[in-house]
Amino acid sequence: MIDIKQLKYFATIVEEGQITKAARKLHIAQPPLSQQLKQLEETLGVTLLERNGKKLELTESGKILYHKAKQLLQQLDDAILEVRETNEGIKGILSIGCVKSCFFYLPETIKKFNKNFPDVKFHLREGDSFLISELLKQREIEIGIVRLPIDSNQYEIISLPSDPYVAVIPKQWKYHHHYIYMKEFTDIPLLLLHRISGKGQYELVINECRRHGFEPKIICECPDVTILLSLVSKGVGATIVPKSTVSIFRIPEITVLEIIDSSIQAEAAVIVEKNRYISKSSIHFLEILKTELSSK
After folding, report:
1. Name one Pfam family in it (predicted).
2. DSSP string for 31-73
3. How far is Cα 19 from Cα 13, in angstroms, rounded to an integer?
4. Is a pLDDT exceeding 90 seen at residue 250?
5. How many angstroms separate the CA atoms of 94 and 54, rounded?
C-alpha cells in the first residue's frame, strides 16, 4: 500500500530536485528517504525519477503521480484545517498577499478584524499580480489582492472599486496647476509600473498615450511602486499610477496631478483559489473587507 508519508516524501524530492536537499528539508537522513522512494517505485512497478547530472527529473509516470499527489496532499491539508477550526474556533495565522499599489485596501480591514479576532496573526506578502497569483497556487497565502487583468478561470474574484490614474511629478519641477493633459507627457521622462510577467497597468498607460497621438518616453520600468515614487521624488522623471497608491505613502517631495483628458481606471480584485477550503479567518476577513468597501 502507498501511504501519505511516501507521497509527501516523493513530492518534496521532486520540488527540491535532489534527495539530499529533500532529506534536509524533511529533517530525516538521506538513506531512509532513498529507500522510501525505491519502495514507492517497486509498489507501482514504474520508475518515477531519473538522474540528469546532479538533478532528478520526473518520468512521464512520475509527472502523473506528482500532479495527483499534490492534489491529495492539498485536500488532506484542507481537511485537517477544517476539522481543527470546527474544534478550536478562530485563531492561528491568516496569510495574505497584496500588490503594493493595493495596500490602500488593507489597514482599516486589518484593524477591525484584529479587534474582533485577536487570536489571529497576519502574515503579509507583497509582489506584483503575477507573483501573488503564484503564491496563491503554491498555497503560501490564502487571499490575494491584485491589479487586473488576471486569469479568472483559476480564481474566485471579488472586484474592488475602480481607481483613477493620476500623474506624479517631482515637486522641484514647480508645476503651477493641479491638473495635467495627456499630451503634456510627450517629452516627459516616464517611470512606469511593469509586471514581472503578463500584461497590466504598463500596457494600459502605453495605450492611453498612443490614443493621444504620441509614444511615451519611458526611461524606467519596475514592478515596485515605492521605488518609482522614490525616483520621482529625486527628480528622475514622472509616473502615472492609481490615485489610491499615492495616498498610502505620503511622500512630501512629489506633486500629484489629476489627468484631465484621461478616463483610464485601475481595476483591482481580491482573489481566492477555486475548489479550496476557505478558513474561517479568511471568510471573516473578506466579510469585513466587503463591509468597509460598501461604507465608502
Report:
1. HTH_1
2. HHHHHHHHHHHHHHTS--EEEETTEEEE-HHHHHHHHHHHHHH
3. 6
4. no
5. 37
Q: pLDDT, tens digit, for every residue of 14-36? A: 988 888 899 998 999 999 999 99
Virtual CA dihedral for 73, 77, 83, 89, nearest 10 degrees?
Answer: -170
Residues 151 and 167 grouped into a single domain: no
Are 39 and 71 in the same domain? yes
- Model pTM score: 0.69
8 Å CB contact between 19 and 34: yes
Q: Position 93: which residue type?
A: I
CATH code at position 63: 1.10.10.10
Residue 116, domain CATH: 3.40.190.10
**CA 96/CA 141 separation, integer angstroms:** 5
CA atoms 76, 92, 82, 284: torsion sign: negative
Same domain, 197 and 251: yes
- For residue 278, what is its C-alpha cell? 476557505
- Enter the DSSP assignment of 218: E
d(CA 204, CA 191): 14
Q: What is the pLDDT of residues 188-212, one digit of tens each?
A: 999 999 887 777 889 999 999 999 9
Whole-number Å distance between alpha carbons of 273 and 191: 33
